[in-house]
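Dear support,

We are seeing what looks like truncated structure output for some complexes. This example has three components. We would appreciate it if you could run it in full and send us the complete token output so we can diff it against ours.
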Amino acid sequence: MKYSWLEVFKAGLSGQKQWPAAWPEVSPKAAYDVIIVGGGGHGLATAYYLARDFPGTRVAVLEKGWIGGGNTGRNTTIVRSNYLWDEATNLYEHSMKLWEGLSNDLNFNVMFSQRGVYNLGHTLQDMRDIERRVNANMLNGVDAEIVSVAELKERIPILETGKHVRYPVMGASCQPRGGVARHDAVAWGFARAAAKQGVDIIQNCEVQAMDIEGGRMKGLQTSRGYIKADRVGCVTAGHSSVLAGMAGFRLPVTSHPLQAFVSEPMKPVLHTVVMSNAVHGYVSQSDKGDLVIGAGLDPYSGYSQRGSPHIIDHCASAIIELFPIFSRVRLNRQWGGIVDVCPDACPIISPIPQVQGLYFNCGWGTGGFKATPGSGNVFAHTIGQDKPHPLAAPFHINRFVTGALIDEHGAAAVAH
Amino acid sequence: MFLIHCPYCGELRDEQEYRCAGEAFIQRPGLDCTDEQWGDYVFNRTNPKGRVVEQWAHSAGCRKLFVVERNNVTNEIYAVRTFESYKEQA
Amino acid sequence: MKRLYRQANERIDRSKEIEFSWQGAHYNGYAGDTLASALLANGVKLVGRSFKYGRQRGIMAAGVEEPNALVILEPDTGYHVPNARATEVEIYPELVAKAASGIPSLNEDLRAWLKPFHRFMGAGFYYKTFMSPASLWPKYEEQLRKLAGFATAPSQPDAETYDHYNQQVDVAVVGGGAAGLAAALAAANAGASVLLIDERSQLGGELVVDMGRDPAALEWFKQTRAALEAHPQVKILVRTTAYALHDFNLLLALERRQDHLTIGARNPKQSRQRLHRIRANKVILATGSHERPLMFANNDLPGVMLASAVSRYQHEYSVLCGSKPVVVGNNDSIYDVARDLVKAGTRPTVVDCRLGYDASDLTKIGVIVKQGYTIVKAEGRDQVEQALIAKTAYNETHGWVVGNATETLTCDLIACSGGFSPLVHLDCHTGSKPWFSREYQAFLPACDKADRYVAGSVNGHSDWQGAAAEGEYVGLLAAGQAANPAAAPKLLKVADFICPDLGRDKVFLDMQNDVKASDIELAILENYRSIEHIKRYTALGFGTDQGKTGNVNGIAVAAKVMNLPIEEVGTTTFRPMYTPVTMGVLAGSEVGIHSDAQRFTPMQASHLAKGAEFEVVGQWMRPWYFPQGSEDMHQAVARECLAVRNSLGIMDASTLGKIDIQGPDAREFLARVYTNNWAKLAPGKCRYGLMCDENGMIIDDGVTACISDTHFLMTTTTGGAARIYTHLETWLQTEWPDLNVYLTSVTDHWSTTGVVGPKARRLMEKLCKDVDFSAANFPFMDWREATVCGIPARIMRISFSGELSYEINVQANYGRFLWDSVMEAGKEFNITPYGTETMHVLRAEKGYVIVGQDTDGSITPYDANMAWAVALNKPYPFLGQRALTRSDTARAGRKQLVGLLTDDPNKVLNEGCQLVAETGSKAMIGHVTSSYFSPVLGRSIALAVVKGGLDLIGTKIYAKPLSYEVIPVTIADSVFYDQGKEKMDGEV
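Here is the complete output from our reference environment:
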């Protein structure tokens, strides 16, 4: 069924009884051409593009819990492509372009809302970095602008732009096409579209071991039995090292708790996304009216999906510094995800040299949501053609051997 | 959130006094290693789920580093030990 | 007013009448009233509008579980509180409150006018529509956003303050009901220090209702409370919500210290709210339970209330919620509520789905008791007017089977009970999963973590005596005393959930988000079967009440639709916060200028007196430039630069990181952490060092002085000080414990005054008599122990400007005296204080890099054109040495640091500006890292990193700044000024 006004109208008349399953509940088959491990946004997107662009490929997605239940359902949904290095910009901008047509492509409204993303600068070095990044973005064909304090005040009147705070705002970069999307809808939309292309989406199916023979992928032992496949793509974010461990190698990632929280819903007063790396906080207001706020990483490694409260306290302090009127707003709920952080803050989208037929897509750290369609798209092509998609090539795992890192940490060091 | 017993200060202190310094007992290869070995040493981590053996520093206290064995799912701490104690054991 | 005669345990003070404003009208209540009890006493039924359908809503509960009565307090003032629940607001004189919902107003909500369209607005309908044409989605979204949210956001900065309070106790008890009171007293009597926390304004919890019914309960409460209040080991916090429980028993609690006071009576010197961080050796959760409503059509009409809330309003506030009540439920508790209502002078009708309860005491006095019936629908225009009831039958396979409505009961109140949900929240915050009790039809706490206990109705106790006994038992255990186990909980027998017929009627589960039973069915129909998917697809439990009344009913409906046992459906995750927490209290006093520490050098007062502008560098506030008169930055910097080049400048360099390195292996240690050689540096000498990480990239630089063979003083960049200290300690303690070296951070111990310029020697000779400053006897990169202005000092002849320069290091507390003395003595040389901006220009003129500005974590020493600082044949290879030979790190064509000269000498490039090889190209070959107008050269200069730049000296390339105005530049050597180093020795 194609979702449309007409169907919604008909359903209303029939008491909402005629809707089909968004994706069917299926049991695993004995064998697939490609198995995607991990039913988050990236994994489902990979499956969708694989099935769409490589017709005839039998694809399954294995999810140990419920789809979209990992970082896809826990992030602050910011989408932007204003990265510093060409390699990263090209990848994220590819994703941005897919976002722009995604609802129609999937026939599922993912509520991609291009309300603009502002990255604030608080020091002279921040402003140098902003200049460098915005300049690079423009040359790379990505929309970007530098916004003065006066202009910021006009566009975001509730932002504190005065001098009498600890880290006064000195300016910002803005990507007008950046924004937010409805995270759950992204997972569901890809799942539904993938299922329509014949992908089996199998929930409550945990991979327990990998069957690798003579350096070639043979199949997976799962909680729902053995499944044969000679190509396996792992897209398991925080748990990537666990999967790599099953295949007998190590990844350059460390898993960390990352916390976020939402306020009670209020009438919208913040119509854009505001990020500040310097004071460790980012905030937007959802279409439901709650402030969605993300904090910095918890500094220790872990898989506990909960972090330490002082990180949240520090983030609240940052948000109030930027928006003093939010001091009396009440926070409703906090949560944590497990993010897999790469040393250069860039992902790994790569065949695994040690195992023929094994591919990993991981290391997205704190910012993977924005890349969901692009990541799935280039990973699907990397698996489908058994060679890195040109946009994925720089993100080969081999860069940690050659030293060709893509250091998006950029000028993080404050010196002199 | 943790409370960690500093083996040098002899006190149970809040996590905020400490800094997690990553996996412990990583072997550093010499200059004659291959690029692969060097990359493995600098970047690759076991990053296990469950029991981890890590270095922590009492950065707002005695500034000593020591080893914490803990469960990174339940946040339970099994043991806090000095590096010397491992040497004695070996 | 629907106020009853004085009830046995009423907690209002009838002698204190309070006038407050609601929706612009004035009402009266009594001290002790909540806004909810006062509104009910005034007969106010409509308090809110629902989120999706704009339906009329009334007060349903008497505590924090209230889903409907969201209000704004003190709107549009600095005291504005969005989305407070009327049930948790204590009224105070002159309180101004209004409903948080209603578009445009509470009485007329346009969403209610859209009623004919509600049938098309099933769960998740927005995922299926508003998609095409894509260009229209922003327009749709704009309209949807107008419907978003409840209360308006505050419009003013916060008029009040917050703070944090850390405490440690042996036993923390959460909840001041029977179990909590008994636990606290038992633990204290057993010798433990005890903190007792309760969210309401007075202790009592659910016991308050029992106190109204049972004189023994009232007596027990009074005695126990008195004992606790008198106990030296007990601290009681009321108006305090324990909202999160973290690992290692870190309990977070929010205390509302002044919210109950008239604004004028609040003490501005006291915090409004306080965050308690409680470290408890043992935690006792006596958090109680919340009642669930029944599921029936129109169960959201004003006048449908939780049965226990009706009793609570009666006993605590002497408020009668209705004069013609129907009490309906699936458990015995409804009969007690009916008895309360009889005592209040009404004649309730009792409807019980079950058979067999002996209600003869009620029937004897004429109360109609309909057993084997349940309610199927409430009807009424603006509030409950009648209840439709139907016969029930139970069978093991299908559960309750409810017939068609057979009878209509006229009423103005439906008090319903669908059972109770224990408040397992805190127990679950650290990952525990609750278990489902069939008998009690509820999720009970696992309590499987160390040093934690549960007691009372959270554990299923239905009687206060049983709760108190269990409380006493766990109190003793928590205090480390042996105790006889308490009796197993006397579980209230709660009948199975009565799931509604999923027809057209609106049966609400989540009142706040308008989630209906049919929405759950729809979600499952579409294969959103995980309870997490159901929650997210329908928004069940997404509200400010986090589904306290609705979630378990929703789970029951899902279980029925999927034909699964409830325990297999499970709950969603309970996460902090238990109830909403003010953002300000998390920040505490760390707001505004206090949001991070500010570090100043000892000379700060002198800088302020000179009118310095400051630059933020890490936590430091460094003088940026010193404007005189009406000078702007460029004028000031030009003056400062020329003063240094031509005469004398003075610069505060105290912020540089300083690490004292001592021990027999100190020299070897330096050789390992720096890329260059340290073997031959003699005492009295200094050397510049470059530091890399194991990835071979520059992470820091600075000058290190050799004090003696076993003693060195290292300087680091200002922003890098802490990081580098940590880096060094880590290597020393983990990889090189065999090196006998000790590190001490001495950044704050020394202050550093730089005296810079051709006349520096003449000034130093004035100030210091025990050192020979001649170039021959005190050469560049030497240091001397000396007495300056009578103060012991270390003078280093090092330079970041190319000029003759002495850095005078003295004990920090002499810093300002020395600075002022130097300023005074330098007057004859026109000594000019300068800040970081001038420092940057001077060093850029000399091509000196700033780590973190000219390098960015991707630059090797070779990239920075500093091969001279790399020693590859040290006995122990330096950190990062191996990385430099990797294929990508060693390849040709990497970005390298070079100078740039604009063709137009007056054109100053923007720092960060990207560079291209051809005018029309968009392929970036590098970027500008530093760029200034050099006053001494009379032209602009810049440093940049350019691909293969060192081989391209003299090549013309193009800067493409944001304006797209192409600026031709020529790649040049990075030393722009005094290439011959003629200025280094100053005026002889």
